[in-house]
C-alpha cells in the first residue's frame, strides 16, 4: 500500500491530485508499480466517525466522483474500500471493511464532465445539466423524471473482497515517521537486499533520495521482481544515504 497526498477535514478525506507536485508524485507511484509488474487496483479510505456510528457504510457524493475518476483511469477492476471506524458503548473501538465500485453509467458521466465540481450533499450526486432518471412510484409504476441531482445509491454497488498476494513484495512498513532509513536497514539486516528493498514505500523514498527514478529504479525493481541480487553500486548509494559506512 502507498499513501497518496490528500486533503482532509471534519467531513472526510480525498486524494489531492490537483497540484502539479502531487500529480507528479502519483504518476511516479504508478510508474514504480509498472516497474514491479504491479498496477493500482483500489483506494482505501475511512468514513467519518459520525457515519460509522449510524451503521450506514456507503460512498457519499464526493466519494463517488473520486471513485468514478479512478475507475476511468485504472480500469473496471478498480475498487474503493471503505473502512468505517467507530466506538462501542463500552469505549472500545471497532472497524470494518467493505468494497465498493461505481456503475458504468457513473464512470461515463465522469468522463463527460457532467458532475458538479462542488458536491455539497452527501446523499445526492449533483449534475451540471438536467438528466432523465426512472423512478418507481407508490403504485409500482415507473415514471421518467427530469432532475439535476441523483441519489448516490443509484451509482454504487458492493462487491465481495478477495485476498491477493504478490510473490515478491512485502507489506509496506517503512515510513519516515516511524524511523530513519538506517533504523529500517538495521531491523532488516538479516534479509538479502532484494527482499530488504521489497517495500513499496521504501522504494518511493529511495527514488526521491539517492536513486534516479527513470534509470536506477527500473533495474532495482527488476532485481526485486526476479529475486536477483541488487547491484553493489545501488547498495553503496543506499548505505550512504542511510549514513552507514558499509
- Report the principal-axis shape: elongated
The number of helical segments is 9
Calculate the mean pLDDT score and round it.
84
How large a portion of the residues is in β-strands, by DSSP E?
A: 15-25%
Alpha-carbon Rg, integer: 22 Å
**What sequence of helices (H) and strands (E) makes up the elements?**
EEHEHHEEEHEEEHHHHH
Total E-strand runs: 9
Head-to-tail CA distance between termini: 30 Å
Structural class: alpha+beta
| Helicity range | 25-40%
Q: Main beta sheet: strand number and arrangement?
A: 5 strands, mixed
Unreliable stretches, pLDDT < 50, 5 or more residues?
none
Which SSEs are present, and which pair or pack?
Layout: E1 6-9, E2 12-15, H1 20-35, E3 42-47, H2 49-54, H3 61-74, E4 79-87, E5 93-95, E6 98-102, H4 104-111, E7 124-136, E8 142-151, E9 156-159, H5 181-187, H6 193-196, H7 200-207, H8 216-226, H9 232-242
Parallel strand pairs: 3-4
Antiparallel strand pairs: 1-2, 4-5, 4-6, 6-9, 7-8
Helix pairs in contact: 3-4
Question: Can you give me a brief rundown of this structure?
Answer:
By secondary structure, this protein is an alpha+beta fold. The chain contains 9 helices and 9 strands. β1 and β2 form a beta hairpin.
Model description:
It is elongated, with a radius of gyration of 22 Å. The protein contains 9 helices and 9 strands. The protein is 35% helix and 24% strand. The strands form 3 sheets. Strands 3, 4, 5, 6 and 9 form a 5-stranded mixed sheet that branches. It has helices at residues 20-35, 49-54, 61-74, 104-111, 181-187, 193-196, 200-207, 216-226, 232-242; strands spanning 6-9, 12-15, 42-47, 79-87, 93-95, 98-102, 124-136, 142-151, 156-159. By secondary structure, it is α+β, with helices and mostly antiparallel strands.
